[in-house]
Amino acid sequence: MYVCHNCEKEIEEIGNFVRCPYCAWRILYKPPLPVARSIRAD
Ligand SMILES: [Zn+2]
After folding, report:
1. How high is the mean pLDDT of the chain?
2. How confident is the model over 13-23, as a mean pLDDT?
3. Can you spell out the DSSP letters for the chain?
4. How far is residue 12's CA from residue 17's CA, in Å, rounded to a whole number?
5. pLDDT reported for residue 19
């Protein structure tokens, strides 16, 4: 899944880097993974 850098809408599957179907922006990025940090409660 990718996120448009302009309108910040989620775009599910893209074969190559094409463009945003909403605003035609060409810069897309992957959102950060939810487990990027290692936080332990103890
Ligand atoms: Zn967009």
Report:
1. 81
2. 80
3. -EEETTT--EE---SSS---TTT----EEPPPPTT-S-----
4. 12
5. 86
CA 9 to centroid of ligand 1, rounded, Å: 6
pLDDT higher than threshold 60 for residue 36: no
**Residue 28 has which token pair?**
């897309």
Cα 33 to middle of ligand 1, angstroms: 20
CA 15 – ligand 1 centroid, Å: 17
Q: Say whether pLDDT at 28 is over 90.
A: no
CA of 42 to the centre of ligand 1 (A): 41
Asked whether the beta carbons of 20 and 11 are under 8 A apart, the reply is yes
Report how far ligand 1's centroid is from the alpha carbon of 11 (Å): 9
